[in-house]
Design a protein that fits this description.
alpha/beta, TIM Barrel, 4-stranded parallel sheet, 11 helices, 3-stranded antiparallel sheet
């Protein structure tokens, strides 16, 4: 898992190709097209490459097991190739905003049929909360050059099942279908909080989900369950 092409070499990418071929359980995760400066630096380091994506393609690293972070500044042909190879993008809206990288062109990804899900960008982001990433996604897409108004259900999908699909584990987790792992976060806002007041008055699932993305934080987390095992318990 090289952080990005700028921090690796052709020899390292070649080794990664060998590992991917030898073990079908492995994923390939790295950066792509994060900001203009990075794109220029990578072009200098790999002058033979016709674009950022071409570097990884040369080493057969783009496919259904590839999760590429950011892709804020993709070329049209790169989107087509990503879609054809069923690679996924980890969209990190808080990190993109914090670093001034730009606004993720969500509509272009959708129209090109490129898969994407939410990420938090551990290095450049501002936390690990998916609710916060979902809200930031909504806000930034409202002011994008090609704006999209995401529904609460779409935000929930991007924060849950879309991630499982990107990682190739949608048959195990990502939603509450029978037979899947019990992976969930149980939210219950503190009594007397603004969120508690809102939830007492909403009359639809859409509004409940919208309120959670807008107002819920760590203070509302009561339980975290992974594969049926409680790993955080604040219910008492």
């Amino acid at each position: 898992m090289p952080r990005f092409a700028f921090s690796t070499s052709e020899a390292m990418l070649s080794v990664r190709r060998t590992l991917i071929r030898e073990d079908s359980r492995l994923l390939f995760n790295t950066h792509i097209n994060k900001n203009s400066q990075e794109i220029e630096q990578v072009a200098e380091l790999f002058p033979w490459a016709a674009g950022y994506l071409a570097i990884y393609e040369r080493f057969d690293l783009i496919g259904a097991r590839s999760v590429l972070a950011h892709n804020v500044h993709p070329g049209a042909d790169e989107l087509q190739r990503l879609a054809a190879r069923r690679a996924s993008i980890a969209h990190c809206p808080c990190g993109n905003a914090a670093l001034g990288s730009g606004i993720f062109p969500m509509r272009r990804h959708i129209e090109a049929n490129v898969r994407f899900a939410l990420g938090t960008d551990v290095g450049g982001g501002i936390g690990f909360g998916m609710l916060k990433e979902g809200l930031q996604t909504y806000l930034m897409q409202r002011v994008a050059s090609e704006p999209i108004t995401l529904s609460p259900a779409q935000m929930l999908y991007l924060a849950t099942r879309a991630g499982a699909e990107a990682l190739g584990i949608a048959d195990q987790t990502g939603d509450f279908e029978n037979g899947k792992d019990a992976d969930f976060v149980y939210l219950q806002p503190p009594e007397g909080s603004v969120l508690a007041g809102v939830l007492n008055r909403v009359d639809s699932y859409d509004r409940i989900i919208a309120a959670l993305f807008t107002l819920a934080g760590a203070e509302s987390v009561r339980e975290v369950c992974v594969a049926g095992h409680t790993v955080v318990d604040r219910r008492n």
